[in-house]
Design goal:
heterotrimer; A mainly alpha (338); B mainly alpha (305); C alpha+beta (533); B: 305 residues; mainly alpha; MetI-like fold; 0% strand; C: 533 residues; alpha+beta; 5-stranded mixed beta sheet; 21% strand; globular
Chain lengths: 338, 305, 533
């Protein structure tokens, strides 16, 4: 097992180096100049432009810039944003919890609803419930979530006034000092933990539903099909034949085995959820990584883009590695596969 | 996201080496699935609309009716039969734009899929057949692409290339390429050491021929399924780019861009925002239903369960 | 199914919050839905309204604009004397002004001449230890020609500062009232430098203004508290909160839900609805701006003024105003907005006339159909809410006279650069006034700016126009200045180097509970003097 782990870890090292290199090169291919982007209608004189480019090191040859950047990375220095002059790592640390919180809630929402829905659909295979659910599921994972989000904001948030339309907490009522960056946790340390926490939950409802829609659809489907497969296995048939109650068969014997592939899917999706948050964050003005990266692209904020893509990809790689490892534990055959 | 799972579900199972089933058997399996047939019908309909948009659309997609800006659909108060689904912010007929938009979206979906499938087959087979070095390099590159979040990668690509229809296609193709490469590689690796391949090798069949005419046909089933589902993913991704203002440029009636353009009317004239979204949703659902049917029909194991 | 759950959940949560009791806000709190995160809190380093607005509550300038106008009033300088030759301005500073204390900094002395000298020194003196801190970009200082105009800032005594100029300049007082004229604390700067954290200076602002900065979370919120020792009296509101909400629709929704009381930049499409809302007051004021489309006179056939006029006549300006700007725009016939000195109201705009435009084009020897390109900004600007839609409408209008235009756009920075290099034929852009002086607009058509890379996008250079403009800069007599400017507008109208599209009207929806909010023609959001019921 340890060898397998080490092997996997070594394999990610070249990926990292290539990632650093590719993001670096790709970002320099983006037309537009980080200094000019910020000047507004006033424009900027060529002398001053040259001066700033010099100050930012942008007049150096690209290979030199790359070496400097790599050297900085080795020292844990991701550089500073060209727009705000704040360290990239610091900005990432401020914004990342918001993305994680949203993604985690979306995932929990999807699992809590999706698994039971899938199990029941499998148990009642072919029933109207099963068919409706599968229909909804196809609709769910075909959903253009930017549109879905707009629609929900309009209906649930505005017309029915059931949820707030954006933001993470009621700013008038609660002044929450970010300690962990996770609003749900930070509110618990505030003066009014109860209402503040509920308010944070209230703000999370809509974005969670929007971001959780696709995972929900996928998990429900996966659970159903994996359940069906397990239910047709010999040992389940045997259990049935032995006269165990259907509930026991489905709930205990089948579910446990059926959840193995579902777990993998959940793991796989966690990585892409972090990324899928880009659109959701844009729609809900959610102060997370996705919005930060999109803004960095339009502002040509090289260090943020570089650092941001690096960091988020690192997270994705780690999550995927974790998933692989878990899968390796659950299903030892995999280890000898390749 | 959905398609990652599709890959997983579609991963070739033990009996990938079965003899190709006849078209009739395939159709009878496919038509068992009502959803799939429904999907197929809708897809065909959308294709017809897209192909014959010139004839079917009541107006030209870029024509601006200054006398009827923001006209509501016909069933709303103030709507008329002249503009069945109303008009947008500069007076263009929504229905006509949706019809021409079908052309754009399907075009994007199909081109992305064909290109990434084609490149994916070549690269994937190369990875499986040209030794460890090639394999490692290709696998690493694909891992790399997959490590960067989909949309961020696509946005970055568009930022480099500049926003346009062609560049949207290029960006989305780059994003989806790894799926096909991995799928082809995995299936090809599964086939490589089978007896019939070894037999062909011994018989002196050349490497290229071995790759493309011996092994490839036996890997096709999961590829076809992935490709069918890939079209819908490509449409969604392109629409997302259009929504962020990075897709096709005006006055091209791309659905995502139409949505973004009309976003400001969501409070005052919500229907303008509703229709393009519905168009995307219906198309993608139909393609996915059809894709699911394909998978069930091509993968006997799934069918049995 | 989902909706029912939601409804229950929604009311459940509301009820729970009610039962648990919420912190009764006895303090007066005003929430402003702003559009974005500031780059930092030092106004001199910023150019975007978003960043400047975020720092303004904390700061003062020597001379200030009256709230809601471009009229000047004393700020940190109680009064000033201008020498007869116009070369020195002596500022008499207000005494007993305190800097607001923050968590980590307690000022030990009052505001004095050192702070004034330091604030400007940082912007031009490369030896100032803070000159390079936080990127050290002081765009406005150089944009307003300060390095050329200013000879020296002299500290005469603790409360007197003398500004020595190289040449007499009328607009300079107005310049100093702009945000880059903000006075910051020299003591705070030194203290942070000693701590080795100079970059904090631009992140946690300390100023003499009506509010004291309390906290900032990127992309979420900025909080200010009233400054109890403010020299102009403690502001009526106790807490000022900027709720950062990037999406315009979301800002309107929050406003309607009472989650904020003032919202920035509503979309034109939402104005009618806001107008109807009984709880809201939709305030408006003509903005100090111009949206225009420049004809690049270097590219034939646009070198002929008949062609430029024909194209202008072919475009239905009224339709553009109605559909794109809605309530929020008035058609422009001159480069400067009507409220400025020297506005020439006698100019008759070219009337929309497709047939005549077509015949003029033919008369000018242009063979149709002809291909041109038309550029539009990729972003929403204060003077143009939707350049893409304007372009689409122009495209359709121009097609009717046989001019087929291709729409072109680039990333925002790239876009301006290419326009300034004259790569376009027809290019949209605009301008927002900085200080209410006409010169701040007219230079856009001057010969100096017509060079490659210059801001004159028409690349049009008219000797008479330019001579008048140079002269107007040094004339102190207002009537005479006005006359020169009126003359220039006639020249520009006759030659039509650009088509003036619109002056946008600034709309600010304000909750009726808010009293005495004033809209700034400069597009500022300002909250001193505002109260809430």
């Amino acid at each position: 097992m340890l060898r397998y782990l080490l092997n996997r870890l070594t394999l990610t090292i070249p990926t990292f180096i290539a990632l650093i290199f590719l993001t670096f090169v790709a970002i320099r291919l983006v037309p537009g100049d980080p200094v000019e982007v910020r000047t507004g209608e006033h424009g900027i004189s060529p002398e001053r432009l040259a001066m700033f480019r010099h100050d930012l090191g942008l007049d150096q040859p690209v290979w030199k810039q790359f070496l400097d950047y790599g050297w900085g990375l080795l020292h844990g220095n991701f550089g500073a944003s060209l727009v705000t002059s704040n360290p990239v790592l610091g900005e990432f640390a401020t914004l990342f919890p918001a993305t994680v919180e949203l993604s985690a809630c979306a995932m929990i929402f999807a699992i809590l609803l999706g698994v039971p829905m899938g199990v029941v659909a499998a148990a009642k295979r072919g029933s109207w419930y099963d068919q409706t659910l599968m229909g909804l599921s196809v609709t769910g994972y075909s959903m253009p979530i930017f549109w879905w989000g707009l629609l929900l904001i309009m209906l649930v948030g505005e017309r029915w006034g059931l949820t707030p339309v954006s933001g993470r907490i009621d700013l008038i009522q609660y002044d929450i000092t970010p300690v962990t960056g996770f609003m749900l946790i930070d509110t618990l340390f505030s003066d009014t933990p109860g209402p503040a926490f509920l308010d944070a939950v209230h703000h999370l409802i809509l974005p969670t539903i929007v971001l959780g829609t696709i995972p929900l659809a996928v998990i429900a489907r996966m659970t159903r099909s994996s359940m069906l497969e397990v239910l047709s296995e010999d040992y389940v048939r045997t259990a049935r034949a032995k006269g165990l109650s259907p509930l026991r068969v489905v709930g205990v014997h089948a579910l446990r085995n059926a959840l193995i592939p579902v777990t993998t899917v959940i793991g796989l999706m966690t990585g892409s959820l972090l990324a899928g948050a880009v659109l959701t964050e844009t729609i809900f003005s959610w102060p997370g990584i996705g919005k930060w990266l999109i803004e960095a692209i339009s502002r040509r904020d090289y260090p943020v883009l570089q650092g941001g893509i690096m960091l988020i990809s690192t997270v994705v790689i780690i999550v995927n590695l974790g998933v692989d490892l878990t899968y390796g534990i659950i299903n030892p055959r995999i280890r000898h596969g390749r | 996201m959905a398609a990652d799972v599709a890959v997983l579900e579609a991963e070739p199972t033990a009996e990938a080496g079965r003899p190709p089933s006849s078209l009739r058997a395939f159709w009878s399996a496919f038509s068992e699935n009502r959803g799939a047939v429904l999907g197929l019908v809708v897809v065909v309909l959308i294709c017809v609309v897209a192909i014959f948009a010139d004839v079917l659309a009541p107006h030209a997609p870029a024509e601006q009716f200054r006398d009827a800006i923001l006209a509501p659909p016909f069933w709303e108060e103030g709507g008329s039969l002249r503009f069945l689904l109303g008009t947008d912010g500069v007076g263009r007929d929504t229905l006509s734009r949706l019809m021409y938009g079908a052309r754009v979206s399907l075009f994007i979906g199909v081109v992305v899929t064909v290109v990434s499938l084609g490149v994916g087959i070549v690269v994937g087979l190369a990875s499986a057949f040209f030794g460890t070095v090639v394999d490692v390099v290709i696998t690493r590159i694909m891992d790399l692409i997959m490590a960067v979040p989909d949309l961020v990668l696509a946005i970055l690509a568009v930022a480099i290339l500049g926003p346009s229809l062609t560049n949207t296609i290029v960006a989305v193709t780059i994003v989806y390429l790894p799926r096909y490469v991995r799928l082809v590689r995995a299936s090809a690796l599964g086939e490589r050491d089978r007896d019939y391949v070894t037999a062909a090798k011994v018989a002196g069949v050349g490497k290229l021929r071995l790759m493309f005419s011996t092994v490839l046909p036996n890997c096709l089933a999961p590829l076809v399924v992935q490709a069918a589902l890939g079209i819908s993913d490509a449409i969604l991704e392109a629409a997302a780019l259009g929504f962020l203002g990075l897709g096709a440029q005006p006055p091209t009636p791309e659905w995502g861009a139409m949505l973004a353009d009309s976003r400001e009317f969501i409070r005052s004239q919500p229907w303008i925002v509703t229709f393009p979204g519905l168009a995307i949703l219906i198309t993608v659902v139909a393609i996915n239903l059809m894709g699911d049917g394909l998978r069930d029909a091509l993968d006997p194991k799934m069918r049995r369960s | 199914m989902i909706t029912i759950d939601l409804r229950r959940l929604g009311t459940g949560l509301g009820l729970a919050a009610f039962l648990l009791g919420s912190t009764a806000a006895s303090a007066k709190t005003l929430v402003f839905c702003s559009e974005g995160s500031p780059e930092n809190f030092t106004p001199a380093m910023n150019t975007t309204g978003t960043s400047l607005d975020a720092a303004r509550p904390v700061f003062d300038q020597l001379v200030e604009f009256e709230r809601g106008s471009t009229k000047l009033k004393p700020g940190l300088a109680e009064s000033w004397d201008i020498s007869p030759d116009g070369l020195t301005i002596t500022f008499h500073l207000r005494k007993g002004v305190k800097f607001g204390a923050t968590k980590d900094f307690k000022p030990t002395r009052d505001f004095n001449a050192d702070d004034v000298i330091w604030s400007f020194d940082r912007q031009y003196n490369e030896k100032n230890p803070y000159n390079k801190v936080s990127g050290g970009k002081f765009d406005y200082y150089s944009d307003m020609d300060m390095p050329k105009l200013v000879k020296e800032w002299e500290k005469k005594d603790e409360n007197t500062v003398i500004l020595h100029l190289n040449e007499p300049n009328v607009p300079i007082l107005a310049n100093l009232a702009m945000d880059f004229g903000t006075i910051q604390s020299a003591e705070y700067a030194d203290a942070l430098m000693k701590k080795g954290k100079p970059e904090q200076f631009d992140q946690v602002p300390v100023g003499t203004g009506p509010f004291v900065f309390s906290s900032y979370q990127k992309d979420a919120v900025i909080r200010f508290k009233a400054n109890p020792t403010y020299w102009g009296g403690k502001p009526a509101i106790d807490d000022l909160i900027f709720a950062i909400t990037a999406d315009a629709t979301a800002r309107v929704s929050k406003l309607k839900a009472g989650e904020c009381q003032v919202a920035a930049y509503p979309r034109p499409a939402d104005l009618p609805e806001l107008q109807k809302d009984a709880a809201l007051d939709l305030m408006s004021q003509p903005g100090l701006n111009i949206g225009y489309m420049a004809f690049n006179v270097k590219k034939p056939p646009l070198d002929k003024k008949e062609v430029r006029i024909a194209l202008s006549m072919a475009i239905d300006k009224a339709a553009i105003i109605k559909e794109v700007y809605g309530e929020a725009g008035q058609p422009a016939k001159n480069l400067i907005p009507p409220t400025l000195l020297g506005y020439n109201n006698d100019i008759q705009d070219y009337a929309f006339d497709t047939a005549k435009a077509k015949s003029m084009l033919e008369a000018a020897g242009v063979k149709t159909p002809i291909d041109m390109d038309l550029w539009y900004m990729p972003v929403q600007r204060p003077y143009n809410p939707n350049a893409k839609r304007v372009a689409e409408m122009m495209q359709s209008d121009l097609a009717k006279i046989g001019v087929n235009v291709k729409l072109v756009t680039y990333e925002w920075g790239e876009y301006r650069k290419r326009l300034q290099n004259g790569e376009h034929m027809l290019g949209q852009l605009g301008w927002t006034g900085d200080n209410g002086d006409p010169d701040n607009f007219f230079f856009l058509l001057g010969c100096a700016a017509a060079r490659d890379g210059g801001q004159n996008l028409s690349k049009w250079c008219n000797k008479d126009f330019d001579a008048d403009m140079e002269k107007a800069k040094s004339v102190t007599d207002t009537a005479e200045r006005a006359k020169l400017y009126q003359q220039m507008q006639v020249i520009a109208h006759d030659d039509q180097p650009e088509m003036n599209i619109a002056h946008s009207v600034v709309y600010v929806p304000v909750n009726k509970k808010v009293t005495d909010y004033k809209i700034s023609p400069l597009g500022r959001f300002q909250f001193d003097g505002v109260d809430i019921k």
